Amino acid sequence: MYLQPVRSVWARVIGVAALVAALALAAVLVGGIAAYATRPEAQRHLTSSTVIFALVLVVLGGFCAQAGYRLTFNRPDRNGTLFSRAGWVALGTGLLAMAGLMAYAIFLVRRPDGNDVFMIVLFAAFGVWCLRLAWRRLPGITFHPGARRDKTRH
């Protein structure tokens, strides 16, 4: 399912919605950075939670932008997937890094509660899942150097 080409009208509708969501997330990030840079009272309230929230917005925005572009303009990668291998690796690595940063920031200041542990494990699990999709072999396609590609697949 995640490695299949997208071709329906609904895929385009969802793609446009994802692009709008990416633009909205970018606007929220830019607004927050502008507020932090221009208002002195905002500078005193920068916490680790704010940084973690900004990192979550960056990852969600990147995910929405890439998925939205591919779905809206029907641009699967050369293997016909929603994300390229590099996209899956970047998404998975970002999610694992976010899980690690969240764990570090939370354990540094307090004892984590159930919701903290749930979110850390969720981000880490999704990160591993994305990395698994990045390195999954597709039928007829080889990824090691010097291997021949099956030219019959489109």
Give an account of the 3D structure.
By secondary structure, this protein is mainly alpha-helical. The protein is built from 5 helices and no strands. The protein has helices spanning 9-38, 40-43, 48-72, 85-109, 114-134. Helix 1 runs antiparallel to helix 3, helix 3 runs antiparallel to helix 4 and helix 4 packs antiparallel against helix 5. The protein is flat. Residues 141-151 have low confidence and may be disordered.
**Main beta-sheet annotation:** none
Low-pLDDT windows of residues: 141-151
| H/E element order | HHHHH
Number of helices: 5
Give the gist of this structure:
The protein is mainly alpha-helical and 154 residues long. It contains 5 helices and no strands. It is flat and about 50 Å long.
Relevant terms:
single chain; 154 residues; mainly alpha
Would you spell out the secondary-structure blueprint of this structure?
Layout: H1 9-38, H2 40-43, H3 48-72, H4 85-109, H5 114-134
Helix pairs in contact: 1-3, 3-4, 4-5
